[in-house]
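During the reporting period the student researcher (J.K.) took over the structure-prediction task from the postdoctoral fellow and processed the backlog of single-chain submissions. One of the processed entries is reproduced below for the supervisory committee.
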Amino acid sequence: MELAHDQKLKTGTTTVGIMCKDCIILAAESKSTMGWLIAGKEVQKIHQIDDKVALTISGGVGDAQALIRIVRAEINIYKLTRNTEITVKAIATLLSNVLSQSRWYPYIFMPIIGGADRDGLHLYSVDPAGGAEEDKFTSTGSGSPVAYGVLEDGFKDGMLKEDGIRLAVRAIRSARERDVFSGGKKINVLVIDRNGMEFVREEKVTELLK
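J.K. obtained the following structure tokens:
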């Protein structure tokens, strides 16, 4: 995606996570920056880490990529050695522990983790010091103050999927318009439910932006 020696310099983003009645919505814009330079306009900031679990990235791209590799490997080890599926809470705890143990030489990384497991649907935000919190909606990155305003105004318990997608797109769009470090060519939206996960078609997102 980007050259390795530049990765840790690339920051600036807006990501959101929303708990709906039957699914989790994760969304992010697609711009990456190095200071005032736009390093990428179509960066993917939502990554699958298990069958029904994904996370968003904000912070340093190199740190995010390293931690995603660590988490995926640990999930595979857990499933192989215990012969059972891992819960979303366990994944959030794992990532929280890695970040906490590295707090003196921290990873610049603040993910949103969303997914489905045997206990239902879950949404967590994890801070760079390792603090994990389960949320009904959350946002990370430089544009999150703007996105939070939209989420606070529009979120309702038990939202349907279509309403959640519409709210996520509106939150990211607002952040792109007001935060200089958020933007890019796309808004990527992922829907996760008990059957798996699927990205919302680009044409549908474009229609919602009108």
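The committee noted the following: Confidence is low (pLDDT under 50) at residues 1-10.
J.K. will present the remaining backlog at the next meeting.
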